[in-house]
Amino acid sequence: MNTFDILISEVGPRDGLQSVNATMGTADKLLWINALAAAGLREIEVGSFVPARLLPQMADVAEVVRHALTLPGITVMALAPNLRGAEAAFAAGVHKVTLPVSASAAHSLANVRKTREAMVEEVRAVVHLRDEQAPGKRVEVGLSTAFGCTLQGAVPEDEVIWLAAQCAAAGVDEVGLSDTTGMANPAQVRRLFTRLRAELGDKAGAAHMHNTRGLGLANCLAAYDVGVRTFDASMGGLGGCPYAPGASGNVVTEDLVFMFEAMGLRTGVDINRLLQARQPLADGLPGEPLYGMTPQAGLPKGWEQPPPLR
Ligand code: ZN
Predict the structure, then answer these.
(1) What distance in angstroms lies between residue 87's CA and the mean position of ligand 1's atoms?
(2) What pLDDT, on a 0 to 100 scale, did the predictor assign at position 109?
(3) N or C: which end of the chain has fewer CB within 10 A?
C-alpha cells in the first residue's frame, strides 16, 4: 500500500448497481467509473459475472472491465459467484476476483444453493483455475453474513473463523468479512477481525460494512482500531443483498473518506473530486436516492485536505 494509510475499495458499480431496480446504461457506467478513478480511488469492483437473465444490471460486465483496464493505476475487481463466473472474469482480464461465501449456513443454501463446504470446494477450483490460466491474478473471498443473517439470525463466531481458515487453506490471497445484512456492532467487529487476523495473518482482508442500522462508520472505525486497512464502500450508499430483505446501503464512500482524512489518515482520494463523481452516478440513475451525510452537509468551514499523494 506504499504511502497510503487506507485502501478504499469502491464497490458501488457492483454491490450498488446490482441492488437497484433500474439498469444503468453502459456509457453512463463508464463515465461514472472514470470519475471514481479520477477522484483517486485505486480499487474498483466494477461488476459481477453472473448470467444476465439473473442480473440484467450486470449484462455488460465484460465491456465495463475492458474499459476499466484502460484506466491507469486502478485495480479492476469483479465478483464471481462460482467457477464459471470466475472463468469469464479471468478471460475478461480482471486483476482480482472476489468470491462471496456465506458464513451463515441458511444464507448459503438460499443464495447459491450450496452448503458452505461445497462453496469451499468451489473456491479451491477457482484458485486452481487461476494458477493454471491466470497466474498473477488475485482471488479473494468475502465472507457474507459474517455478523448475522436475516434467515437464521446469529451466526456463531467460531463458524465464521472456521470458514475463513478453510478458504485461506484453499489458497485464496485474502479473506474479508462482510456485514451483508447490517447487523454488526463495533464490539463484534473488533472481536471478529481480531480473531481473523490472529488466524489468517496477512491473508486477513477487507471490512465490508453496510449502513442498514446507521453503524457503518462506527464499524469501520472499530475494524481500523484492530488493524484493518482495506474498506469496501459504495458511493452514495447504494447497495444491499436481494436475499437479505431490508438490508440496504453500503457504508457511504464519501463519509468514510471524510472520516479517515479528517483523522489525518491518507486514503489517496481527493474528497472534492469524489463529491463531483456523484453527478455522473445521479445522471445515470435518475430518481434513485443517493445517501451520504458529508455530501449533504458539505465540508466543514476551513477544513482542507492535504494535497493528495500520487
Ligand atoms: Zn454488500
Answers:
(1) 22
(2) 93
(3) C
What whole-number distance in Å separates Cα of residue 21 and Cα of residue 23?
A: 7
Is a pLDDT exceeding 90 seen at residue 247? no
Domains of the chain are: 7-297 (3.20.20.70)
d(CA 114, CA 116): 6
Task: Give the bridge partners for 8, in sequence order.
Answer: 231
What's the CA-to-centroid distance between 303 and ligand 1, angstroms? 31
Query: Is 241 one of the catalytic residues?
Result: yes
26-64: pLDDT as tens digits: 999 999 999 999 999 999 999 999 999 999 999 999 999
CA distance 148 to 124: 25
Q: What is the pTM of this model?
A: 0.95
